[in-house]
Amino acid sequence: MTSLPSAKGPFADLAELLVALRRAARLSQRNLAARANISRGTVQNAESGHTAPSALLLDAYLKACGADSRTADRARRLRTRGRSDQRGRLRGLSAPAPDLIHDRHDLAATLAAAYERAGAPPLGDREPLPRTTAWRIVKRKGLPANVTQLETFLTACGISPAVQRLYTDAYRRVTATRPLRPAPLRARRNDIRTIVEARSERHELTGTAAAIARQLPAEALEEMLFTAITREAQRNGSGLPDVWVASSPYLDTGVDISMRTAAGDRMDIQVKNYRRPEPPPHAPGPGAPPSRPGSSPSGKWFGPRRAALALAQVEARQAKDSDREAAALLGAPAR
Known about the structure:
single chain, alpha+beta, 13 helices, 48% helix, disordered N terminus
C-alpha cells in the first residue's frame, strides 16, 4: 500500500479519489494493473497527481475498481478540471457568458473558454468540422463556418444540446451582419485631383505621384503615362483611346495628355513639372509650318506611332526643301 499523494499537482484531487477507490476494492497496484490490463507504472503515474491519465485508462481503472456511475462521473470531472488548471489559459480569456455575447470577438473567446473548461479534448477530424477549422477556433483565429460546425465543436466540448442553443443564437446574431472590409490603401490615396470644367475634366498629379513626377524628365514621364494607358486599353479590351502626349521645351500649353472618355467628353491631364524650361536652340525658320497646339515648332511629338511617323515624314520634306534652297544659292546641283 502506498500513502496518499500530496496536493501539489494539478490532478491531486483525482489521484486521491483513485487511491481511495483502489483501497476500497482491496487491490494493490500490481493486482489492479493485472485486472485492468495495464502496467504498474501506468497506475503509479495516475495516482501521482502530476499527470493526467487518458480517458481510456481512466475508464479501465474505474472499471477494475468497480466504481459506480456517480463516482465515475466525478472522476471524469476532476480529470477535466485538472487539465484546465494545468494549461492555465482559461483565466486569460475573459470570456462572457453565451447570452452576453455582443460581437465576434466575444464569441471567439467564449468558444475557446468552452474548450479549455472541457479539458482540451482531442478534436481530430470530426465531420463536418475539419481539423484546421477546429484549430482556428481554439486559437481564436476564426469562427465555425456554419451552425453545424458550431454544434459539432460544442458536442466535442461536452456541452449539452440545451445549452448549445445559447451558443447558436449568439452565432446567428453576430454573423448576421459581417463588418465591412476596410478599403485598400491604394483606393484611399488621393494622388490625382480631378477638376471638372464644363464638359471636360482636368487631372493634376498630387501627393506621392507628383513627387515622383518632379524627379523624372518630362519626356520619360510622358512615355510612361502613354505606356500605362496603352496597356490598360489592351487589358480591358477597349482599344487605344483617342489620346496624344505633347511636349515642348519652350511652348507650354498647360495640357500634357488629352483623351476622349467613354461618354465622348474630352479629358485633359496636366503634369506639374516645376522645372524652368531651357531656351530653344534656334527659332523656327520662315518656311516652317504653323505649330499645332500642344506641339513644338520643331514638330517633336511623343505618343502614338502613327503621329510619330507622320511627323518624321514632315521633317524629311523640310530637310529636302532646305537642301534645294541651299543648292540654289550656292549654284550647286541639288540632291
